[in-house]
Amino acid sequence: MQWSRFKPNLISLKLQWNRLKIQISSP
Fold first, then answer.
1. What is the mean pLDDT of residues 1-27?
2. Organism's domain of life (predicted)?
3. How far is CA 2 from CA 9, 14, 15, 17, 26, in A?
């Protein structure tokens, strides 16, 4: 696995997950 290609994906995924959690927690 090429870590340099995978890491940016992981970061964007984390950002999306944070955004999703914010949407869920706010009514």
1. 87
2. Eukaryota
3. 12, 19, 21, 23, 37
Q: What is the mean pLDDT of the chain?
A: 87
Cβ neighbours of 3 (radius 10 Å) = 7
pLDDT value of residue 1 = 60
3-class secondary structure, 1: coil
Residue 1 to residues 5, 6, 9, 27: CA-CA distances in angstroms? 9, 8, 13, 40
Burial of 16 (0-12, 13-18, 19+ CB in 10 A): exposed
